[in-house]
Amino acid sequence: MSVLSSLARLEAVATGRAQPLATVRHCHLAAEPLVMVPLKLAGEAAAPLAVMLGTERAEPVLLVVPQPRNRDLRFAFATDLAKLVLEYVESSRGAIEELKPGKDGEERVRYGDAPQILVPNRAGVGFVRMLGRSTRFRRTDGPHPVDPAVPRLGRWLTWFADRHDKPGACLLMTMTETLRLHWATGQSSLEDGSLAALLGWIDPLDGLDGPAAAARAEDPATCPPAGPATDPTFDNEVLAPAIAAYDQARDDRAEERVRSVLDGQLRPTWDLMWDAVGLLRALPEGASVAARWERDRDSFTWYHSTFDDGHPQARRDPAVRAARRLHDLERAQDAYDAQRAFDDPLVMAEYRLSGQAFGGVVTESDPARLDESGRRPKLRPHVRVATGDPLQLDVGTTVCDAARPALKGKIIEIDGNGGVLLELTGGMGRKLVPEPGVVPEPGDRVCFTSLGAGSWGAAKFPEREDTPWTHGGPPEEYVPTDEDAAEEWS
C-alpha cells in the first residue's frame, strides 16, 4: 500500500466517507453493458443456481435452475443463457471501421463497438471462467447432446475471462475492483470485496456514515451476498426447502417458489450494480481509456471474425504460449500503470512521493541549444527545474513530460538545492528549431517521470514446435477429449 492510499484510508476513517484515489475514470463504460449477477449451489464448483442479467436496470432477466443437481435442467439453463449472451455479443459489434493496411499490406477492419460484461466481484469472474470451461467442450451429437449454442457460449465466456486477466482491458470487469481503483475506504481490503459494504462507504444513504452504512450492508437479511456464493442461513432455511418442494411436486408452482426466493437474493445486488455504474459514469473518462478500448475492439473483431475457424482453447497453456502470455501481461501492466499516471495527477502524486517522478517550476530554459559534438548538429534544449520532491532518480535517467509523454529527455545534473537540469532529446519536431510551445519556459509548472508507456519491447520466443526439452519438448497436437467434455457437469 502506498503512502498516498494509506493517507486516503486514514482520512476515510476520520470522516466516515470514502476518499477519491483518482480524478478521472480509468476504465471504459459501454453505453449498454451486460450486467450479470450469478449464483451457484454451495459446495459445487460449477453447479449454476441462477443468474440475473440484462442491459437495462428496469428489465432484468432471471434464469433459474430449480434443481441444480439435475443435469438436464443445468443444460436447459445453459441454453437459455447462451441465447441471451450470444444475442448481446452479436448486437454489440456496431459499424465496421476501415483501418490503414498493416505492415504486410493486408486490409484491416475494426468493429465500432464491443460487448462489455459487468460482474459484482472477482468470484464472479471465476464463475464465468468455470462455466465457460464446463460448456465449451460439450458435444452437440452422440450421447447426451447439447444445444449448439452451449459450446459457443463456453468459448465466448472463456475468451471474456482470458481478456479480464489483461491489465486495462474492459471487456469483463468486476465492480468491486473497479470501485477500489477510484476510491479508498476505511475498512480492510477483504471487506472491500463486498459490493454492498464498499458502496456504503462511497455513497451512504439515510444520513449514515460509512462504517454504519457498511455494517448495515453486511447484514445478509437486508443485503444478501453479491454472488456467486449464497448465505448459509438462506441455504438451510429458505433455499433447501424450496428445492425439496420442487423435487416432490415438479410443477410450475414449485418452480415459481424457487424463482421467487432466488429473485429476492439477486435483486439487491442487481440494484447495487447499477448504482455503481452511475457513480463511475459521473467521473470524466481518462485520456488513454479510448486507446485501450480500441485494443479491446481489435481483440473482439479478430476473435469474432475467426470464431468459426475453431481455434482450440486448451485447459492449460503449453510452455511457449504460457511464457508469451506472461510476458504480454507484464508489458500490459507496465503500460497501464504509466497511462493511469499520465491521465491523472492524483495517481502521478504516488510516483512523486516514491521518487519516480518530480514536479516543480522551470527556472531556466535554453530552447534553441544545439549539440554540435557529432557530424550533424542536434537540437538538445536544456531546462532546469526547481523541485521539492524526494527525488530517487540518477543522472543519466531517461524521463518524459507527464503532460506530454512524447517530450523526452535525460537528467544531466542534480544540485543540492532541489534543482534538476534536463537535456531534452525527443518530441520537439524534426527541425533544428523546436515547435512553438513544446519546450517549457521559465515560470511553467512541469512534471517529469521515468515512467513510460511501452517502455520495454516484446521478447522473442521459440515456436510451439520448438519447445525446449526443459519444458517438455515439442507438444503433441491438442485434441479435446471426452475427459475435457465431462469435467464438471457430468
From TrEMBL:
<protein>
    <submittedName>
        <fullName>Uncharacterized protein</fullName>
    </submittedName>
</protein>
<feature type="region of interest" description="Disordered">
    <location>
        <begin position="458"/>
        <end position="490"/>
    </location>
</feature>
<feature type="compositionally biased region" description="Acidic residues">
    <location>
        <begin position="479"/>
        <end position="490"/>
    </location>
</feature>
